[in-house]
Amino acid sequence: MLIINARRLTGQPVALRTVGERIADVGADLVAVPGETVIDARGGTLIPGLWDHHIHLRATVAAAASIRVGPPQVHTPEGFRAALAAATPQPDGWIRAVGYHNSVAGELNRYALDAVVAHVPLRIQHRSGAMWLVNSAGLAVLGQPDHPTGQLFRQDAQVAAATTGHATDFGPLSARLSKYGVTGVTEATPNLAAADLDSLDDAVGGGQIRQRVLVMSADSGRDHPHLVFGPVKRILDDDTLDLDALTEWIAAVHHRGTAVALHCVTVVQLVVATTALRTVGVHTGDRIEHAAVVPQSMISDLVELGITVVTQPNFVAERGDEYLQDVPASEHEELWRLRSLQCAGVPVAGSTDAPFGDLDPWAAIRAARDRRTASGSEISVSEQVSDAAAVTLFLGGPGAPGRSRELTTGSAADLCLLSEPPEVVLRELDGELVAATVIGGQLMDR
Ligand SMILES: [Zn+2]
Known about the structure:
About 30% of the residues lie in helices and about 20% in strands. The protein is of the alpha/beta class. The chain has 3 domains: about 1-50 and about 405-445, Urease, subunit C, domain 1, CATH 2.30.40.10; about 60-165, Diaminopimelate Epimerase, Chain A, domain 1, CATH 3.10.310; about 230-405, TIM Barrel (Alpha-Beta Barrel). Helix 9 (about 245-255) packs across helix 10 and helix 12 crosses helix 14 (about 360-370). The radius of gyration is 22 Å and the shape is globular. The two termini are about 15 Å apart. The structure holds zinc ion (ZN).
């Protein structure tokens, strides 16, 4: 395949040839060889395909079939009750709802849920992804009829074991990702069971998932070339932080030659994570997921460790209005830092954390540039980055998320072609401009 008359994000003219899975030639102007498929970009912009560096594939598929009971769709107790009253159970017999936040109807327990849905098993995922709220009918199905509250914290595996049974159809999700120009994703769900890994392996091997997938699990011998294994993820929770245990765990993972990815959304989690990493030493590929709150004094710790931060700029847009209410103004600059980290020399990569954030990477890219909430308020504009830097957050590769891939001969032919020239692309930062997505030299259907 030959792409002609394109421009790089920098504005320079570029033509590019792919042969098989790779970029075979890059120049300002290349001439087609007989029989070659030619795509005329007509002045559009050619960039490496986007990589979403932190996403939960199966949960995103499930969320698409769930009802939303949190902001921005649902804000009030009345809206919450109405949404659940209108819900119909899924094939597994459950009503599944997602996106709940306590601002909607307060802290919920099984009895509050029974008052809304009495006889059908109901499970509601808290927006944080850390908790399922289950009614009494659901607790009975889960084999926990005597659970005092129905608030199941970090019990995804147990809930999944009792509720799945249907093979996940990843095809529509993969197609949506292709529409956004996404050619690779990092599956960030920790502790995936063998069945989950098998289903990902089948989906990638069978072509349901067209994107390359980096899984945050130890390599388990599955060997499709588009499915690779990377840093092993660990979630830190404030209530169960244990510096010694974490230090030992990191050392053991490193000892096997594998990097770690540490989920840190609070300051204390970041302190414990960086302390443990300093003790053990950083392995190539180690990363901090989220770094939702970084005090000024800790930026130098991240620099010294040389560790990559994988952030979600979209949360500034999606949750910013709540931050403005709930977080003291003096701490706003610590939220979802971007520019200050990059300026200090911390490699930073972007991601959506779908389904907890919106799947559209371009919305996250715009949020990185604009730092505006849904209602239009700004949050710590000093953390804004340029339009080009915002795009670059999604151009890293699986092994080095914070370093942009380049259109160079020999690299994987994973490409995103946009219909407009770079100045328009950078102004709009809109996924609607994606005209073609190429993965491993294959043009994706539109
Ligand atoms: Zn996540």
